[in-house]
């Protein structure tokens, strides 16, 4: 699969270079056992490695604007387009919005564990190096077991856990739309250029009142710096050197691309899934504002059914690309049965296969039959 990872890295890199917005979103779908998590993790690791190598060749200086320079409410920018549609009352299981403070907005789903929180970005020096690319699984939006126990037919709900109706689908769709809205942000529209000197970096004290006419950044120079920084070489991850004293414009652009925390884009905190507890864990994953490539992976991210279809939207967004992994049922059955056994869900391989037949196979067939067409398809093979 190594060549597949490199191909996918190149696609993600090309998407980021061609897209004029702040970040890009990859939607990665596939049936159970197809290796979505493994593929997403390996692609993100390669992108982060490439990014670290690029950064090692750039002379950097830490520079953070005071936290007060952020907008007093993170819901006032692009995320407002999503959150303003939400009710202040949770009825019929639909999400509600709660303004917790000037620096925090919470979106609550069918259970508190499934909540999404938007926060003023943390000033983490290592975020750009380690989370340039980030994997976001949809597993944290499983409905908790106590919610399933309140279903009209709880026995079926537990037996079919992992089917679409056992997820908080509206919350997954809201997350996807929030991420898509951050892809739309043009950095120069909300973040004026920092001012540099040959001795280092200095920040205009009137950072948020900077006159656009004084900006040294043009669309062509932005594209040039963007392309150079995110070039991915399939054979050898090459590192290009940037000399800030010779090319100050490029260095300005690189600084801006690296420091996502200087925009109004929030950190997005979402639930993870605790396999030991077999339930979602609130606030388990933070999607950093500095992250440039987000890989949202899960069975149903391309599903063409109510609520789920809102995840992929109209699929014409220049900052969003969809990938799907295909796998034959026989291989999927073997993989998933072994996974159930290793996780302690079943006592033997035969029970694992029976569990696959009764639930995972049904879900996999739904994914293959009802998913929207992906931009790129990968065929998973046993190695």
Automatic annotation (TrEMBL):
Protein name, UniProt field: Yfh7 protein
């Amino acid at each position: 699969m190594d060549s597949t990872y490199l191909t996918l890295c190149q696609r993600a890199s090309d998407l980021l270079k061609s897209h004029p917005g702040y970040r890009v979103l990859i939607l990665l779908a596939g049936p159970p056992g197809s290796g979505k998590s493994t593929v997403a993790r390996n692609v993100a690791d390669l992108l982060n490695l490439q990014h670290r190598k690029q950064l090692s060749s750039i002379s950097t200086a830490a520079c953070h604007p005071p936290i007060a320079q952020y907008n007093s409410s993170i819901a006032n920018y692009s995320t407002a387009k999503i959150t303003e549609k939400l009710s202040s009352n949770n009825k019929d299981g639909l999400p509600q919005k709660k303004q917790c403070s000037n620096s925090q907005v919470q979106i609550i789903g069918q259970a508190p564990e499934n909540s999404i929180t938007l926060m003023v970005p943390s000033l983490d020096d290592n975020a750009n190096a380690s989370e340039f690319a980030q994997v976001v699984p949809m597993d944290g939006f499983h409905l908790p077991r106590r919610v399933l126990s309140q279903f009209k037919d709880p026995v079926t709900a537990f037996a079919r856990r992992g089917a679409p109706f056992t997820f908080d689908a509206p919350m997954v769709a809201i997350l996807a739309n929030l991420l898509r809205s951050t892809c739309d942000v043009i950095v120069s529209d909300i973040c004026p250029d920092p001012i540099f000197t040959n001795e280092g970096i200095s920040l205009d004290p009137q950072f948020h009142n900077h006159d656009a006419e004084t900006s040294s950044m043009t669309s062509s120079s932005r594209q040039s710096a963007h392309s150079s920084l995110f070039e991915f070489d399939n054979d050898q991850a090459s590192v290009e050197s940037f000399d800030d004293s010779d090319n100050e414009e490029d260095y300005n652009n690189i600084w801006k691309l690296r420091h996502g925390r200087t925009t109004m884009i929030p950190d997005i905190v979402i639930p993870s899934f605790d396999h030991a507890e077999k339930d979602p864990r609130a606030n388990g994953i933070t999607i950093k504002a500095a992250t440039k490539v987000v890989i949202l992976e899960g069975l149903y991210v391309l599903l063409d059914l109510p609520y789920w279809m809102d995840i992929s939207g109209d699929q014409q967004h220049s900052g969003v690309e969809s990938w799907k992994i295909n796998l034959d049922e026989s291989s999927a059955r073997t993989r998933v049965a072994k996974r159930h056994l290793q996780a302690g869900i079943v006592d033997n391989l035969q029970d694992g296969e029976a569990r696959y037949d009764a639930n995972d196979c049904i879900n996999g067939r739904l994914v293959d039959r009802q998913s929207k067409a992906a931009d790129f398809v990968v065929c998973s093979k046993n190695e």
